[in-house]
Amino acid sequence: MPLITLSAHNNHAIDGPHTVTVAPGTHTENRSTQVHVSFMKPGGGGGSVTFQITNNHKIFGNGGQPIPHGTTSVHIINQGPETINISWV
């Protein structure tokens, strides 16, 4: 399972994931950061979600929030100010 740390105001695209987990990076407890996740589908229409992450994690796919059928990649934008960790399979 790959793992990357994404600093504030950066983004990362993942091709063809089945499950994506977004978790807080190393930072002071109770500091929040905003994350935007886009689901890319051929021809458009995949949708997106924006959320705050503090001391918890967010799962897409495999028991978490569903990844829309036909998604070919997931684009994650860390809108800041804290780092986040992203893992996927």
Q: What portion of residues is helical?
A: under 10%
User: Uncertain spans, ≥5 residues at pLDDT below 50?
Assistant: none
Structural class: mainly beta
Number of helices: 0
User: Which descriptor suits the 3D outline?
Assistant: globular
C-alpha termini separation: 6 Å
Order of helices and strands: EEEEEEEE
Spatial order of the strands forming the largest sheet: 1-8-3-6
The largest pleated sheet is described as: 4 strands, antiparallel
Count of β-strands: 8
Q: Please state roughly what percent of the residues sit in beta strands, choosing from under 5%, 5-15%, 15-25%, 25-35%, 35-45% or over 45%.
A: over 45%
Mean pLDDT: 92
The Rg value, from CA coordinates, equals 12 Å
How would you summarize what this structure contains?
The chain is an all-beta fold and 89 residues long.
